[in-house]
Design goal:
This protein is mainly α. The protein has one domain. Helix content is 84%, strand content 0%. The chain has helices spanning 2-36, 43-60, 65-99. The longest helix has 35 residues, at 2-36. The chain is elongated and about 75 Å long. The two termini are 38 Å apart. Keywords: Membrane, Transmembrane, Transmembrane helix. The chain crosses the membrane at residues 12-39, 59-83.
């Protein structure tokens, strides 16, 4: 039972972190671009950056910036979960190989 709990804990932590980091990155970029629109001298750069980021997120979110951020986060969390499952599978494969005695022919 304990190995299953460890695997599940690893899987959940991987998914949560892999969802949270891209979402925070995208929201941070949006915040920086929005903040740049209030700084004299770089407001035009901030506006263009904000328009480009929202256009990019609208593509993934079917017209909604919020959905775009969620879709990117969920996609990266799913892929990270698959990688975690694969590495655990390979780890147990290698452990089985190490536990088998060598056969002399």
């Amino acid at each position: 039972m304990k190995p299953i709990c460890n695997l599940l804990r690893s899987f959940v932590v991987t998914i949560v972190v892999s969802f949270a980091l891209p979402v925070m990155l995208v929201l941070g970029l949006l915040t920086i671009a929005l903040g740049m629109t209030y700084v004299p001298g770089v407001e035009s750069i901030g506006e263009v950056t904000l328009q480009q980021l929202t256009a990019f997120l609208n593509i993934f979110g079917a017209g909604s910036v919020f959905r775009g951020v969620i879709v990117i986060g969920l996609t990266l969390a799913l892929v990270a979960g698959w990688f975690d499952i694969y590495t655990v599978y390979r780890l147990y494969q290698f452990k089985q190989l190490d536990s088998e005695p060598f056969k002399n022919s």
